[in-house]
Specification:
This protein is mainly α. It has 14 helices and 4 strands. Strands 1-2 form a two-stranded antiparallel sheet. Helix 8 runs antiparallel to helix 11 and helix 8 packs antiparallel against helix 12. It is globular and about 80 Å long.
């Protein structure tokens, strides 16, 4: 269709705007032009859908039901018992968030304390070690390899090694304490000592990652900035505060975010280090959800509810944290 407009030299025909193409047409054209890209991405999409999307959707569905070990479908010999659970809407979420179960908020408080404590110690030790390794020193390569070792060793091996060192009768730490004239501690027995032990082990596991990231950030800071600050009479501490820390902001913000998410969901340290000796006070949200699903009469709906709540907490935290960092970068 064309439209005619009057002009000094006579009528001028102008083409009408092309009709808008639908989403399916645009996708088809994109596939025709970039089929190889779609072919490369497809296996990843399938794997993510099977390993992430389906379990997430299944967990959300179970959180809306009253599914337990007693009413899910099961096979007893040659007999098949059908599922008898049904939808209950948001009752599980209300039961948890209202504090009716009596376990969510104590576990949430300890999870926050655990995450903040591990994060502060990890970042502090990693920053100190990265600053030391960023200087010229003898055997620097050896020190780097030794400090990265906890990151290279499989996590369960390191945790079991710490479990042996924290043993009440034969552990290395108690041997050191007794040689110093101090009483031996039941590291894996009392609730307070259990909390100290899991924080200690998790800090040991998390420092290498942060140290490597911060060391790379320090080496990316132009040396001219340090030289200019030194020529202006700034002390080493002033150069660290006014040059190094601001230069590490892009790296440190990402490291803190990733480490916080990892620590918030750190299942292996608490479960493998404490085992069945836990009094329940050292359980964070993820270990408590695991116990609900696989201890005693399995409460699948309750465990799924905890899982979705954990996901929402981390999504909210990540969103606000990134927005805050973006505002700080712009200001």
């Amino acid at each position: 269709m064309t439209t005619t407009t009057e002009a000094p030299g006579g009528p001028v025909k102008s083409a009408a705007p092309a009709p808008r193409t639908g989403l399916l047409t645009r996708v088809r054209r994109s596939y025709d032009r970039h089929w190889y890209g779609w072919a490369m991405v497809l296996p990843v999409v399938i794997v993510m859908a099977v390993l992430v999307l389906y379990p997430l959707c299944r967990g959300f569905y179970l959180s809306l039901t009253n599914a337990t070990e007693a009413n899910v479908a099961k096979d007893i010999g040659v007999n098949h018992v059908p599922a008898t659970y049904h939808l209950v809407g948001l009752d599980n979420y209300w039961h948890v968030l209202s504090g009716a179960d009596g376990d969510f908020y104590p576990r949430l408080i300890w999870t926050i304390v655990w995450t903040v404590s591990c994060g502060v110690f990890q970042f502090a030790f990693a920053l100190v070690l990265a600053n030391m390794l960023n200087r010229k020193m003898r055997f620097r390569l050896f020190y780097r390899m030794a400090l990265i070792l906890p990151w290279a060793v499989p996590g369960f091996i390191g945790i079991f090694a710490w479990r042996l060192m924290l043993n009440t009768q034969y552990g290395v730490l108690n041997e050191m304490l007794t040689h110093l004239g101090l009483p031996a501690q039941d590291w894996l027995g009392s609730p307070l000592n259990q909390k100290i032990a899991v924080i200690l082990v998790n800090v040991w596991l998390g420092v290498p990652f942060q140290m490597v990231a911060l060391l790379g950030g320090m080496q990316s800071i132009p040396a001219e900035l340090h030289e200019a600050a030194e020529m202006d009479g700034a002390s080493p501490w002033q150069r660290f505060l006014n040059v190094t820390l601001p230069g590490l902001r892009p790296v440190s913000s990402t490291v803190i975010l990733i480490s916080s998410i990892w620590t918030f969901n750190m299942f292996a340290v608490i479960y493998l280090l404490i085992g069945q000796n836990t009094t329940g006070e050292t359980d964070i949200l993820v270990t408590y959800a695991f116990n609900k699903a696989f201890t005693g009469v399995s409460d699948y709906s309750g465990a799924a509810t905890y899982g979705i709540i954990i996901l929402l907490i981390l999504l909210v935290f990540s969103t606000f944290y990134r927005r805050r960092e973006l505002k700080a970068e712009k200001s």
